[in-house]
Amino acid sequence: MESTRNRLIKLLNQEDNYISGQQLSDHLNISRTAVWKHMKELEKDGYEVEAVQRKGYRIIASPDKTSENTIHWGLSTSWIGHQLHHYEEVDSTQDIVHQLAKQGKPHGTVVVADEQIKGKGRMSRPWHSPKGKGIWMSILLRPELSPVQAPQITLLAATVLAKVITSQSQLIPFIKWPNDILINHKKVSGILTEMQAEHDQIQYVAIGIGINLNQSAEEIPVDIRHKASSLRAESKEEWNITSTIQEILKQFESTYDQYAAEGFNYVKEIWETYGYKIGEKVTISTMRRTWEATLVGIEPDGALIARDSEGKREKLYSAEIQWGEGGYDAK
Ligand code: BT5
């Protein structure tokens, strides 16, 4: 059920139309005093509401700060982000989403923070998440999948981010297996998937998405500056956090629904068109050997397929890849 606040925002945001206090009260089925109180709250969130005598009210400026309301406003999704929790500061949005999952929150619940103090990557590596400079977000999913299929969701999330970057800019994103987003060979985004499963069924999946939006090159920590960047540093344009979150949620929902209807092949095809060095030669080191390979694509279990010089295909689950001259690791 949509909140009164959201319905109020939608009513106040109808192009050039003004709406009177009485009409608002009728539509929302609340008193005029209650309408007025909600409007004061909107102003606190950074909305500017214009009041014109005998015409009524309308929104003339939306806030540039991110909040539950500003994300909800204009978000036309059917299941993702309806339950949305925004925090100014958290240790990690992943921790929060795990708590919410254990409280029984539904599929599609989203947690967003302006800043993470202990943002984490895979294998407990730190993830730099400075205040107001990027998207630090976790999505709770309750897919009807077996645990071995969980990597498909991570690969799906990477295709969503690549699609959003492509649709919002001239940038050309690549997905470095399994799920880093690179632009000009530098990482702008990472995905962390954590899962709770019992027997043969996933209980829930927590997808953590970190995207560097507006850091200047100097704001990227020195130790990773050679291999990390932000969308602003690459596109020379400022990115709006709220509208980018909305785009990701919309694109996530439609991609997920399509994947649920068509199966993994749908994700695989998109992933491979964005796949970093797919069809190109790299050097692979596994426990057993180091060899030259051409990367071919991905498998339903998340593995990377590589072909050696004799045409023999091998599935890789974790491997050290040297991406070659000018590549990610040559920076
Ligand atoms: C990842 O791990 O790339 C997954 C990052 C997921 C972050 C999101 S933010 C919302 C949610 N809440 C969390 O606490 N986490 C998720 P991995 O592939 O292990 O990469 C980590 C490595 O990337 C680090 O060891 C650094 O080298 C580098 N790194 C750290 N911060 C970075 C940043 N902001 N941009 C680019 N690279 C970074």
TrEMBL record:
InterPro entries: aa-tRNA-synth_II/BPL/LPL, ArsR-like_HTH, Bifunct_BirA, Biotin_CoA_COase_ligase, BPL_C, BPL_LPL_catalytic, HTH_11, WH-like_DNA-bd_sf
Pfam families assigned: BPL_C (PF02237), BPL_LplA_LipB (PF03099), HTH_11 (PF08279)
Annotated residues for binding of biotin: 116, 187
GO molecular function: biotin--[biotin carboxyl-carrier protein] ligase activity
DNA-binding residues (ranges): 21-40
Top EC class for this record: ligase
Entry EC no(s): 6.3.4.15
Reaction(s) this enzyme catalyzes, per UniProt: biotin + L-lysyl-[protein] + ATP = N(6)-biotinyl-L-lysyl-[protein] + AMP + diphosphate + H(+)
Gene3D superfamilies recorded: 2.30.30.100, Bira Bifunctional Protein, Domain 2 (3.30.930.10), Winged helix-like DNA-binding domain superfamily/Winged helix DNA-binding domain (1.10.10.10)
CDD domains in the cross-refs: BPL, HTH_ARSR
Boundaries of every BPL/LPL catalytic domain copy: 68-260
Annotated TM spans: none
PANTHER family listed in its UniProt record: BIOTIN PROTEIN LIGASE, BIOTIN--PROTEIN LIGASE
Role played: Acts both as a biotin--[acetyl-CoA-carboxylase] ligase and a repressor.
Family: Belongs to the biotin--protein ligase family.
Protein name per UniProt: Bifunctional ligase/repressor BirA
Organism: Halobacillus campisalis
Gene behind the chain: birA
